[in-house]
Amino acid sequence: SQQGEEDPQALSIQEGENATMNCSYKTSINNLQWYRQNSGRGLVHLILIRSNEREKHSGRLRVTLDTSKKSSSLLITASRAADTASYFCATDAGGSYIPTFGRGTSLIVHP
Amino acid sequence: EAQVTQNPRYLITVTGKKLTVTCSQNMNHEYMSWYRQDPGLGLRQIYYSMNVEVTDKGDVPEGYKVSRKEKRNFPLILESPSPNQTSLYFCASSPLRTDQPQHFGDGTRLSIL
User: Fold this and answer.
1) What is the per-residue pLDDT for A5?
2) Is B69 exposed, middle or buried (0-12, 13-18, 19+ CB in 10 A)?
């Protein structure tokens, strides 16, 4: 069962613009993670945010978490063509060891 | 180098011919998992294992088998493949903690004719 759902499904922007994608989930979590997938390749972990954190930064990535709304957002600032990929959120529903992934947001950054 | 290795990377085969996709990790992770990825459906979990000799069904286990005889290996077995199992498959591993990332293999693209 898919706990996290990303929105939008697809996003197309120009290089230099910011990209924002959202993840909503249904049950309480301990942690939420964001992953990136280049076309046809394995997912790569980007960032983890704990339920008691509201915001986290890593380079050009900014992740927020609103547990009251059961949602998270991933912001990529000053996007580059190399950021073109699919982005997935993964949650540990109810503290389960089994992460559940959403369907992902496909980001295209035009040079 | 810490990694999850899947083999083969690509396979074209015919309906009914048994096949095994191997997965091996060198990080001493307890948790291992198989996913399939299809357009528009995201990642769907097939089977997972929390330790040696402990396996359990994910969301789409029908038509698949797994085994976990050693901690590092978690093969995916298709006893009688069918065309609807044509997909991109990923193996992943992690420590048995919710605050640790999953490490993914590079994927295996299976085509069942």
Assistant:
1) 84
2) exposed
A93 pLDDT higher than 80: no
Nearest chain A residue (CA) to B30: A97
Under the banding of pLDDT at 50, 70 and 90, the label for residue A3 is low
A-interface mutation test, from B88, B102, B106, B111, most A Cβ less than 10 A away: B102
State which residues of chain B have pLDDT below 70: none
Average pLDDT over residues A58-65: 97
Partners of A12 in beta bridges:
A108
User: Which chain B residues touch A1 with a CB distance below 8 Å?
Assistant: 59
Query: How far apart are alpha carbons A18 and A54 in whole angstroms?
Result: 20
How many Å lie between the alpha carbon of B1 and the closest alpha carbon of chain A? Answer: 15
The token pair that represents A19 in the structure block: 């990209």
Residue B17 phi/psi, 5° resolution?
Answer: -90, 110
Joined tokens for residue B23: 């997965």
- The partner residues of B13 in beta bridges, in order of sequence, read B112
Position B36, amino acid: R
The single-letter code of the amino acid at A101 is F
